Structures are given as structure tokens and as C-alpha cells.
Amino acid sequence: MPQDLPPPIVMVFAASDPSGGAGLQADIMTLSSLGCHPLTVVTALTVQDSTGVESALAVNADWVADQARALLEDIPVAAFKIGMLGSVANIAAIAEIVSDYPEIPLVLDPVLASGRGDALASEDMIAALRELLLPQTTLLTPNSLEARRLALNDNGDLAACARRLVDDGAEFVLITGTHEHSIQVINALYGEAGLIRSDAWARLPGSYHGSGCTLASAIAAHLANGLDMAAAVFDAQEYAWQTLANGFRPGRGQYFPDRFFWAREADGD
Questions:
Q1: CA angle 43, 166, 209 (to 5 degrees)
Q2: Helices vs strands, H then E, count in the chain
Q3: What count of Cα atoms within 13 Å lies in the side-chain half-sphere of residue 70?
Q4: By the 8 A CB rule, do 42 and 24 touch?
Q5: What's this model's pTM, rounded to 2 decimal places?
Q6: Could you give all domains of the chain from N- to C-terminal order, each with its CATH number?
Q7: Distance in angstroms (rounded) separating the CA atoms of residues 265 and 248
Q8: Which of 182, 184, 180 is nearest to 237 (CA)?
Q9: Three-class SS of 209-261
Q10: Which of 45, 180, 237, 251 is 20 to 30 A from 231 (CA-CA)?
Q11: What are the tens digits of pLDDT across the range 138-196?
């Protein structure tokens, strides 16, 4: 029998990754794996594979806005998740849209570069993100390199960067430590009162495509399912770590997270 009540619904603004490793495709798989239904707003098209991003074409901002408005007028959403945005005009359009829904949690994954280091955001885009989206963000999920760049503090310690980003408008900031040189990966969640939780994870060998998308989408899924921020962040980290530990290498480049590792484990049983 069809259900009268839908699963929690999450709207994602992100670029299409034809490899399926990151971007909208990663968000769709992660949200579906965690019991949510994704609504997808395409912000850019990319040419990329497992080795890196070759080029990106931003979708016209009016098309971005029309995609989102059509869906939001029809379907209630429980959370927003924002990834790669493509242009300053897209940032402005999305900021205007989400401002009409201040009660809905917004998870912002600031995609500034690919895993290989390909630049995906200009300085103008970073400035627009800080000015227009950061004040509306419930949770910002930068890696340590992105945190320093967004906080305009290239050499600052990460706690200071988090304080700056909270002062600039983000309600919570989760800084991930994959790019640091620690033995374990340390991820730290900050809020207005400072450090909320710090979690250490075994550093896995290899390089992964789409790990940040997976983590941010998993947090959005758990928030949509009703968890509070601290619990959503921990459970999403556990899920993301498992996707990496069960990752696979489909081509010549990076490993991909296996967002449905649990289904393959069940099949094996």
C-alpha cells in the first residue's frame, strides 16, 4: 500500500558529477541511504572523472531559482543542503530563496576545490558566500583548508577560524581534519559557546572523491530525521567513515565512498 506520509525530504543545491563520486549524485545516494527523499537543484554541469575536474559550466541563475521555487511551492522540505554553486549569481539566487524559509536547517558544504586541488570557487564567489549565505547557515562543514580561507586567516588555528565563522553568521561550524597531518582525523564541532564536541577517526589509506559531500548530506539527513545537531554530526561521521572504509576504486584516480555499504553487507550475510 502507498504511504500517505513521505519520508523526510531534503533539497540539495549542487553541481552534477557524471562520475557519481561527488556532487548531486553523491548527495542523492547518501540521502537515500539514510531514509530521506532528495529534491535536486542543479547549479552547474561538470566534466570530471575519478582523477579530477576538467571543467564546469554554471547553470543560469534564473534556471536555478525556477527549479527550486517550483519544488518548494509543491513539496515541503525538512532541510537544505548546499554544495558547489557555480557562480556569484547562483549564490545570490539561492540566498534569496532560502531566506524565505528561515526555520528550515541549512547545511552548507563550501566546495572551494576538488580533491585534486582544482579551483571550483573564485574570490568573488567566496566573498558572496560569506556575505549572503553564511548568515543563513545552520551548519557550515569546511575542511581545515576551507575554514582558514573562509575565515580570512590562512595561518590561524582552527578554533580561531571557527570563532570567526560563527561571528560572521554560521550557527554551527564543523571543521574536518582530513587535510591536517595528525595521526587520526580530528573533526571538531563549534557553536556560539565554543567547542561542542571533538571526534577522532582512524585515518584511512588512499584519497577519496566525495567524502565531504557524503558527510554534509548525512548530517542534513539526520537533521531532517529529527536529531539534534551534536547527535546528527556524530552519527553522520560514523556513517561517512564506514562509507570510506568500504570504499572502492572504479577508475585510475581516487577511491569513491560506498554509500550503500550496509546493503552489500546484508547481501553477504
A1: 40
A2: 9, 9
A3: 9
A4: yes
A5: 0.95
A6: 9-261 (3.40.1190.20)
A7: 14
A8: 184
A9: CCHHHHHHHHHHHHHHCCCCHHHHHHHHHHHHHHHHHCCECCCCCCEECCCCH
A10: 180
A11: 999 999 999 999 999 877 799 999 999 999 999 999 999 988 888 999 999 999 999 99
